[in-house]
Design goal:
alpha+beta; GMP Synthetase, Chain A, domain 3; five-stranded antiparallel β-sheet; 11 helices; 15 strands; 30% helix; extended
């Protein structure tokens, strides 16, 4: 294939704001084309016709308060709104500004939870200037929050500050290893800022979401850019994807397991269900052989042929071997010139490590303000001791070190 026949990819974004702008444009394009978005029914053009006359319905819009936040529904209140515009809505914290990501549409009231509050008005230029001033004041509030913490001598770490749209409510996020009682601190801060102050303790994942940063992939953190809800993650996902079982290598900046482990986990499960297992003896077009390695995403299998005089490895597609209905194109068997022992040791190193340990990692649950969060850290369970520990124990407790009477010491 010539180089001009390949797909043309756009240039990578230069800034974070440009990347978010492109993501919003793609989201809007999918909505306009009627493509499914997030597993919801907002892309359905015939949704209004599905509502029966006797069922109560309302004209609602989907509003998101931050790029990585959840979507909340409000009554359109007769306003002509489009995706991307800013509106002012009423929440439990007062008046808040949010961006419309789902255009007004009819929806049954029994599909929504809680009371549907109306949209107050659209955002004006004065409102945008007021939002910018509150953002600058939030940066100053964090510094003041840290100074007050040191004055009260509390074991707390300030994370971020966020004003409500009207400036009547200030939320201060902090992290702490232990539970603290910051009542006196909250009263002091409320008198200082002359508004309602809420102190909220967050966990490691929420701390990374609020602070932001760069991940191992070199891109901005998913939780701070687009991920609305933290997925359920376990070390079993890393094992399914043949990744390192060392928690330090599959953890993010928050110290917890990477959220991206859940993105391709189902695809790996489906592909491994039809592919042969590592170390399995199978029949190939070149004769019987032993599976020494797998390329799961490409659906390729490396087999060490067992026929006499054919001590080499060859790569086959799963379709050539008759495993499932492979979508990968059929390829001719490709011989590999590397030594056999080296390939076998490389392919089975991860499996042998798990078998020697005899136990797998377990998830740790930490509680923050009544909410549980699966951290994915690894605890040392009561497994068998290593061989080096056994040798040390034998040297300490051998026959030469025992009492002369031959009895066991207590």
């Amino acid at each position: 294939m010539r180089q001009d026949d390949g797909p043309v990819f756009p240039a990578p974004p230069a800034t974070l704001d440009e990347a978010r702008s492109r993501a919003r444009d793609r989201f809007k394009q999918r909505l306009q084309n009627g493509e499914p978005v997030g597993g919801c029914d907002c892309h359905s053009e015939g949704q209004q016709a599905q509502i029966k006359p006797h069922e109560p319905a309302a004209n609602v819009v989907g509003v998101r308060f931050r790029d990585s936040g959840r979507t909340y529904y409000f009554n359109a209140n007769g306003y002509e709104l489009t995706t991307g515009c800013w509106v002012v809505v009423e929440t439990g914290r007062g008046h808040e500004a949010g961006r419309v990501i789902i255009a007004p549409h009819q929806i049954r009231l029994n599909q929504l939870q809680g009371e549907i509050k109306p949209v107050l008005r659209r955002l004006t230029d004065d409102d945008i200037a007021h939002m910018e001033s509150l953002k600058r004041e939030s940066a100053v509030a964090v510094k003041t929050f840290g100074r007050k913490i040191r004055e009260h001598g509390l074991p707390m770490k300030p994370i971020s500050a966020e004003y409500s749209f009207d400036g009547s409510h200030l939320t201060l996020n902090y992290s702490s290893q232990d539970r603290v009682e910051p009542r006196s601190l909250a009263i002091d801060l409320a008198n200082y800022f002359n508004c309602r102050v809420e102190l909220k303790q967050v966990g490691p994942r929420d701390e990374a979401r609020l602070l932001g940063g760069m991940g191992r992939c070199g891109r901005t953190l998913c939780c701070s850019s687009w991920l609305p809800v933290f997925p359920e993650i376990s070390m079993g996902m890393a094992k399914t994807q043949d990744l390192s079982l060392n928690p330090t290598k599959v953890s993010g900046v928050c110290g917890r397991l990477l959220c991206c482990l859940s993105y391709e986990n189902e695809q790996y499960k489906q592909m491994k269900a039809v592919l042969p297992r590592l170390g399995q003896t199978i029949e190939t077009p070149q004769g019987p052989g032993l599976v020494v390695s797998l390329q799961v995403l490409k659906e390729l299998v490396t087999v060490r042929l067992a026929s006499p005089g054919a001590n080499q490895e060859m790569v086959f597609s799963s379709a050539d071997l008759g495993f499932g209905n492979s979508s990968a194109p059929a390829q001719a068997a490709v011989p590999i010139e590397q030594p056999v022992d080296q390939l076998v040791n490389t392919a089975t190193s991860a499996t042998e490590a798990v078998q020697q340990n005899g136990h797998g990692p377990a998830a740790v649950v930490e509680q923050f303000d009544g909410e549980e969060e699966s951290s994915g850290e690894v605890q040392e369970s009561g497994g068998p001791p290593s061989s080096s520990r056994r040798r040390r124990r034998r040297r300490r407790g051998g026959p030469a070190n025992r009492p002369a009477g031959g009895g066991e010491s207590s």
